[in-house]
Amino acid sequence: MRSEKQNRYYFKCIVLLLGNELGYHKFEMHELLKNKFLAEPSKDLDKGEFNQYCEQIRIWAQQELSIRIPLPNEC
């Protein structure tokens, strides 16, 4: 299961940032990201899997949207 620190990073630095940029509420953005990148519920991911999920989102946001999402140590 992902850590509380990972969860805070995800919602603060990924979901809110993308939601603000794209015009979605944080819950809408979270659902969009889950549907795009996950085959299972995000709550079922372990720490490593959750890190990979966040990395996929960062790469996609940079390449497709030209939005740079800060790394965990930058946020």
Provide the fold topology:
Elements: H1 4-22, H2 26-37, H3 47-65
Helix pairs in contact: 1-2, 1-3
Tell me the span between the first and last alpha carbons.
21 Å
Given helix and strand content, the structural type is: mainly alpha
Uncertain runs with pLDDT below 50, 5 residues or more? none
Overall average pLDDT: 94
Overview of this structure, please?
The protein has one domain. It is mostly helical and about 80 residues long. The mean pLDDT is about 95. α1 crosses α2 and α1 packs parallel to α3. It is globular, with a radius of gyration of 11 Å.
What's this, in brief?
The protein is mostly helical and 75 residues long.
Keyword list:
globular, 3 helices, about 80 residues, mainly alpha, about 0% strand
